[in-house]
Write a structure and sequence with these properties.
Chain lengths: 406, 435
Amino acid sequence: MDILPILTTLRRHKITAFLVILEIALTCAIICNAVFLISQRIERIHMPSGVAEHELIQIELASIGAKADEFARAQEDLAAIRQIPGVTQVASVAQVPFGSSSNNAGIRIDPNQPKSMIDASTYYGENLIETYGARLIAGRNLRADDYRSMDAVMEGVRSGDTKLFPATAIITQSMAKRLWPDQDALGKSIYIGKIPLQVVGILENLVRPSIEDDSTANYSAVIPIKLAQGQYVIRTAPGDRERVLKIALEKLKQNNPHRIVVQKRTWDEIRGNFFQNDRSMTGLLIGVCVALLLVTALGIVGLGSFWVAQRRRMIGVRRALGATRHDILHYFQTENFLLATIGIALGMVLAYGINLFLMTKYELPRLPATYFPIGAIALWIIGQLAVLGPAMRASMVPPVVATRSV
Amino acid sequence: MFGYYLDLALRSLKRHRMLTGLMVLAIALGIGASMTMLTVLHVLSGDPIPGRSAQLYYPQLDPQDLKGMTSSKEPPDQVTLIDGQNLLRAKRADRQALMTGGSVPLMPEQSMLDPFYVEARYTSADFFPMFEAPFLYGTGWTAADDDAHARDVVIARSLNDKLFQGANSVGRSVRLAGVSWRIVGVLDKWQPNPHFYDLNTGSFAYAEQVFLPLQTMLELRLDRNGSSDCWGNSGGGAAGILPMDGCVWLQFWVELDTPAKAAAYKDFLLRYSQDQKTAGRFQRAPNVRLRNVMQWLDYNMVVPDDVRLQTGLAFGFLLVCLVNTVGLMLAKFMRRAGELGVRRALGASRRALFAQLLMEAGVVGLVGGVGGLLLAMFGLWLVRQRPSDYAALAHLDPAMLYATFVLSLCATLLAGLLPAWRACQIAPALQLKSN
């Protein structure tokens, strides 16, 4: 197909051609960025947790009135839960991954550092690593003699007696890499305030309960402190979760009826809750992309029809001079392809500009070059589909039109 | 003339149903999307306490040690108990209130109700007049009650409905955290959005059900929620242990009726910080802030980033829709070149043609506005189905309803300018000849 005659014709319809190009450019720019945002959100939704995702249940209870001998009562609860058929592990914990409520501490690798290097989430509780199913990739697990009770730790905080604090910790791989980029973290000490904790093991991953910055999402430390806050995590086979949850609630109610169930859910629900905003944003972005493509397509159909009507005589003359229907069809398709290509080229520049703006305003990463072809292909396809109708109508124009005066 | 142009516009629009439909659809989609997001933004960035937000200030001090927890130059977002009590007792503002949040178990006397947790605000007497909390029955407690560690409670209307079926419960008692409290007041429906006086609870759609004197809470060591930031070796804040002296965990608000008083109060804060430093309690140079409600909300960026992004996206979408409309309108006007040529030849001025074409654009804008309004209502319904805490607040108010039509009309008239101008450039003779 010869492009020059198309360009000559377009030059006589500068404004209309410019509008089509502008619309395609804007749509292309927005689509590129929106698809990038969508992929970012999807990646976030699938953030790895490091735990046995489909095997966990969380139960959180709050006792009313006098609290006495909580630790012994928690042992009764744990024993009762352990007896339920199908329960493989159970732990009394203070926080769950993606559970939102969290304990965090500033971490130093030298007590004399003026500022803490990172902020990490601190997991407490006996049998926690086994229950969560976090994978130990180096060192050893926590042992019974590593553990101190929460009461002892609080007493230590009050009296300043450092012997009451635990002396070991297990940290995640990404936290270890951040603290000691080129060295083995095993055997080194982290400091919370002035309290030293020797790193005895490294976990492959254990995500934090609440995430402020995705790049620090896996900065977690497991510290050997026993506690009894009425929050239990149970591990069981995926198919047993509903049944185990029901029985566990009954047993806990038997143990102590004066408690309120604050939380009872599977870990899949926890994850679902945690990312619900990202999911709804993804849906919204997809909706906008579809609407944009639709509007652009309708615009092309409208303008295409107008052009075809305006050029009926020209088409008739061309047909009379020997052009086939195919040639006419191709003419309009090529014209649209040309306009789309110019629009896409312009759209890429615009997409880059929007991305730069978003980077400064919302701390988004740079738009990878791989996203540009997505916008381009989407608009080429939409353009071709939209112009097909008007182009078909144009190819139906009979040659005899050339001889008519209107 | 207006009526005649309107008639012409309607006739012309009817003649090209498909093009007209496409234009109206494009405008409606663009307006619907942008008005949905604009309404959400409008609701979220609204003034939670209109008329008083300029007189309510949130003082910030910097009591941290030199090591510090952050490199930020801003002082912490909350105050320590010592500073809070000092400022509260200094009474240098017209009114002042120190507060924090928590949740306490409630044991109903009615045996058919199970015990449940209620959201609590621990505060001081000025809280109610300062924030103009509306009372249905009774009043708040007094400063003397604060000092006496009175076991007084103000409950919310929803709780009063639940426990006392809406009857006047002033003087009756309620068991909270294992202790009996005397009800002194019942608040009418009250839910400032955003929850400006304590943003730790989540900014939107949060309301306390009981209000208890802070001094009594300190005595009884009731559980508290919310953030506490500590430095040095300070800690605590869990399970009946209050956060220690090196922790900020309370919010302190003051009412200052004139700008002069605000300036004087800021001087007072600086002097206070200097005195504390001289006494050895503060280590850093005096670093204070005194923000009013809107400045405080702005500083905390309570409008979620996602909402700003969505608003930007919606306007990008509106822009595409408008470009689309310009194109379609141009096509439509140029198609009628013949008719316009005849009108010109018969003596119509360019200005008259221009007015006539803009009238046509205006009609499209109005119809598009109606469509946009319906779509915006649908869009807001969709927003309300979303899980965000602000979702329930997304409703169209009269101001936004009006804005929808203004935006739609302005946008379409703007979109009509270029095509109308272009169509008016037609040389009448040429058009007549080709016909």
